[in-house]
């Protein structure tokens, strides 16, 4: 699908001035130029044109609010000066997988004063000696190059941070339920210990005041009532818990 038609479909009859994000990845540019994008996209903040066959940015319209631009896997080798003219507030620029070979190709980005993150991964320029040091020196406003700063600290990933917060919120209840189960088991165990003490009651054989004696029995919960007279029945009651 060509880029112009793709943009029309993405609009879905909406006014271009209402669009804040636009993705036209894998559409095709017939002549290597930006097509179908006009300066009516005054509120556009994020634009992704990955693998669309771009070789020039000369026809990029003015996008004053654009902050993030994805241009990876195209055929760009120059004309980057257009970015500072048309997108002066860019903070993130991905040019990975393009035909950028020399430092002179990115020199035009010096005028992007708000640029914080630049990606040139898989471009020939990355094979230059002292590539990282040279780019940081040429573009002092850039904090992260290919995802890392000058001290090799990785750039923060906002999506991963959101996932971490979700994980923390969901972890609490599981532990609480386990604690409750343990408490219930402890209570059951303590009750069982109290009932486990059994007593054997023996009636004395017509001696004295016919008193009773209580004797502790360590066996499982069991109560025996014994009548030792010759013809009396023997009654046994068992209580197993």
UniProtKB/TrEMBL annotation:
Residues 148-169, 176-191 have a biased composition (Acidic residues). InterPro entries: AN32 (IPR045081), Leu-rich_rpt (IPR001611), Leu-rich_rpt_typical-subtyp (IPR003591), LRR_dom_sf (IPR032675), U2A'_phosphoprotein32A_C (IPR003603). One of its GO terms (biological process) is regulation of apoptotic process. It is found in: Cytoplasm; Nucleus. Keywords: Chaperone, Chromatin regulator, Cytoplasm, Leucine-rich repeat, Nucleus, Repeat. The keyword Membrane does not apply. Pfam families: LRR_9 (PF14580). Residues 128-146 form the U2A'/phosphoprotein 32 family A C-terminal domain. GO terms for molecular function: histone binding; phosphatase inhibitor activity. GO terms for cellular component: cytoplasm; nucleus. This is Acidic leucine-rich nuclear phosphoprotein 32 family member. It comes from Lates calcarifer (Barramundi). The gene is ANP32E.
